[in-house]
């Protein structure tokens, strides 16, 4: 195919804020995890799939397979949908309290 560009598991985006490697990045309907540090406005490689340990709402208990969302205001993962962006699913149960949850990203779209 002459028009194929890339697999898309890692995409280059414009950093919407100062980022550290491992931060969740959301640009429009695209989300993923920053592969490196980047300053706001700079290009950053963002991984759109895979399994990551992410900060979570400590007071929530997660079940394996639960839908997980990103709360951009609190900067943590949650099982509360509301106006939050769906990230993926919990691949491990997480206790209440716990600061980290293991999430499989659903590749953005």
Task: Explain this structure.
- The chain is mostly beta strands and 109 residues long.
- It has a single domain (10-106), classed as Beta Barrel (Virus Head Decoration Protein, Chain: A).
- 0% of the residues lie in helices and 43% in strands.
- The protein has a 5-stranded antiparallel beta sheet with strand order 5-9-8-6-7, with no helix packed on it. A 4-stranded antiparallel beta sheet has the order 1-4-3-2, with no helix packed on it.
- The mean pLDDT is 95.
- InterPro entries: Phage_VT1-Sakai_H0018 (IPR011231).
Write the layout of secondary structure elements.
Layout: E1 10-14, E2 24-27, E3 30-34, E4 43-47, E5 49-55, E6 67-71, E7 76-78, E8 85-90, E9 100-106
């Amino acid at each position: 195919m002459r028009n194929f560009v890339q697999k898309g598991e890692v995409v280059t985006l414009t950093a919407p804020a100062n980022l550290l490697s491992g931060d969740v990045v959301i640009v429009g309907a695209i989300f993923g995890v920053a592969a490196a540090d980047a300053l706001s406005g700079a290009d950053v490689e963002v991984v759109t799939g895979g399994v990551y340990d992410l900060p979570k709402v400590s007071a929530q208990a997660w079940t394996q397979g639960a839908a997980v969302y990103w709360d951009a205001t609190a900067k943590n993962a949650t099982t509360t949908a509301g106006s939050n962006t769906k990230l993926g699913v919990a691949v491990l149960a997480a206790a209440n309290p716990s600061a980290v949850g293991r999430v499989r990203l659903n590749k953005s779209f």
